[in-house]
From TrEMBL:
Database matches in NCBIfam families: PRK04302.1, tim
Subunit structure: Homotetramer; dimer of dimers.
Enzyme class: isomerase
Family: Belongs to the triosephosphate isomerase family.
InterPro entries assigned: Aldolase_TIM, TIM_sf, Triosephosphate_isomerase, Triosephosphate_isomerase_arc
Biological process terms in GO annotation: gluconeogenesis; glyceraldehyde-3-phosphate biosynthetic process; glycerol catabolic process; glycolytic process
Binding site for substrate: N9, F10, K11, I146, G180, A201, S202
EC number: 5.3.1.1
Full protein name: Triosephosphate isomerase
GO molecular function (one): triose-phosphate isomerase activity
Species this protein is from: Metallosphaera hakonensis JCM 8857 = DSM 7519
Pathway stated in the Swiss-Prot or TrEMBL entry: Carbohydrate biosynthesis; gluconeogenesis; Carbohydrate degradation; glycolysis; D-glyceraldehyde 3-phosphate from glycerone phosphate: step 1/1
General function of this protein: Involved in the gluconeogenesis. Catalyzes stereospecifically the conversion of dihydroxyacetone phosphate (DHAP) to D-glyceraldehyde-3-phosphate (G3P).
Residues forming the catalytic site: H93 (electrophile), E141 (proton acceptor)
Length: 228
């Protein structure tokens, strides 16, 4: 990972799978190449293998289970996503919580497999404790703002500034801000407040012109990083 860290979470939108999912991935790859900025896509488990073969940008899973290989029907393990071609995964998203013991186990196994990890938290008080587990980054997202169109950087900037103070308590872990990110200005403010990047979902996945939206977000992320 290298700032600005940009993660587009495909979630389970109708644009996240099949032909439309591939088209979205290709759009994001194009913008990534044109701006010389890495864009990570976090995709449904069923799309990992396909997209890992079709695009050059990093493909992440949206979730992994911290269970051992064996009799765990429906589980998605670190070994599964590694074999499918994923470079890493989100963990503990507010829409897919993971128990602490499973989270710790999943992280340890991901590290052994050379997989990157981003732990999601819903409040800044959890940034340092989760950072001690040594993921690549911690993504802070107040759940009430997710998908709201009202960005954390504008509605609750103190979440980012407090999270920045918390992440300084650990070493070599990035901080990403998310929830309600919609415009380039949202991104610019989040990074100027101290975050190393941003996470976005509906603003891109539900956009009429996703290329225009992601270009605006990325260019503002680059501008903010240059001014830091």
């Amino acid at each position: 990972m290298k700032p600005p860290i940009i993660i587009v979470n495909f979630k389970a939108y109708e644009t996240s799978y099949g032909k439309r999912g591939l088209e979205m991935a290709k759009i994001l790859e194009k913008v990534s190449i044109e701006t010389s900025t890495e864009i990570i896509i976090s995709v449904p488990a069923t799309m990992i293998s396909r997209l890992a073969q079709e695009v050059t940008i990093p493909v992440y899973a949206q979730h992994v289970d911290g269970v051992s290989e064996g009799a765990h029907t429906g589980a998605v393990t670190p070994e599964h996503i590694k074999d499918a071609g994923a470079r890493g995964s989100l963990l503990n998203h507010s829409e897919k919580r993971v128990r602490m013991d499973e989270l710790d186990d999943a992280l340890k196994r991901m590290k052994k497999l050379g997989l990157e990890s981003v732990i999601c938290v819903d409040r800044y008080e959890l940034v340092a404790p989760m950072g001690l587990l040594k993921p690549g980054a911690v993504l802070v997202e107040p759940p009430e703002l997710i998908g709201s169109g009202v960005s954390v950087s504008k509605a609750r900037p103190e979440v980012i500034t407090n999270a920045v103070n918390e992440i300084r308590k650990v070493e070599d872990v990035y901080l990403i801000a998310g929830a309600g990110i919609t415009t380039g200005e949202d991104v610019y403010v989040a990074i100027k407040l101290g975050s190393d990047g941003f996470g976005v979902a509906s603003a891109v996945m539900k956009a009429k012109d996703p290329q225009k939206v992601i270009q605006d977000l990325v260019l503002n992320a680059i501008r903010a990083m240059e001014e830091k």
